[in-house]
Amino acid sequence: MTDLARLGAILAAHAGREGALLPILHDVQAEFGHIPEASLAPIASALRLSRAEVAGVLGFYHDFRRAPAGRHVIKLCRAEACQAMGGESVQARLEAALGLKLGETKNDVTLEAVYCLGLCACAPAAMVDDRLVGRLDVGAVETIAREVRG
């Protein structure tokens, strides 16, 4: 099945559904691993929205990706509690250990900012792939870097 056919199947599954934009974007990302730029116009057309409206929603929600993520995804919490507990230094150490900045993908690792993981009592925190990690310190950062580098 081609990418266009796969996108068409997603759009058809949501045809006539009120408020379908977010469910469609979630399904597209689940299918392709990101929201391909070429999918914005067909989504907009199917929902009778402008391409700018679709792009605006896509840009507003941090979990939607415009490019494929790496095999490993690290989501570093940037919320107030994590910042108060040393989040800036954890970010700097993690960026140095991985050789990338927030928002980048390199060597099959993506480093993303999130704005709460619900681990405020264990701040600073991150999610490594699907695993929550709290009380990040130098040792934890080194362990994470080793894990994702393989």
Characterization of this structure:
- The chain is an alpha+beta fold.
- Strands 2-3-1-4-5 form a five-stranded mixed sheet, covered by helices on one side.
- It is built from seven helices and five strands, in the order ααααβααββββα.
In short, what is this structure?
The protein has 150 residues and is an alpha+beta fold. The chain has helices at 3-13, 21-32, 40-47, 51-60, 80-84, 87-98, 138-149, and strands at residues 72-77, 105-106, 109-114, 126-128, 131-133. It has a five-stranded mixed β-sheet, with helices on one face.
Q: Kindly name the structural category.
A: alpha+beta
As a percent range, the share of strand residues is: 5-15%
Q: What is the terminal separation in angstroms?
A: 33 Å
Whole-number mean pLDDT: 94
Any key phrases for this structure?
7 helices, 150 residues, five-stranded mixed sheet, elongated, single chain, iron-sulfur, alpha+beta
What's the arrangement of secondary structure elements?
Elements lengths: L2 H11 L7 H12 L7 H8 L3 H10 L11 E6 L2 H5 L2 H12 L6 E2 L2 E6 L11 E3 L2 E3 L4 H12 L1
Parallel strand pairs: 1-3
Antiparallel strand pairs: 1-4, 2-3, 4-5
Helix pairs in contact: 1-2, 3-4, 6-7
Organism: Rhodobacter lacus
Cofactor: [2Fe-2S] cluster
Keywords: 2Fe-2S, Iron, Iron-sulfur, Metal-binding
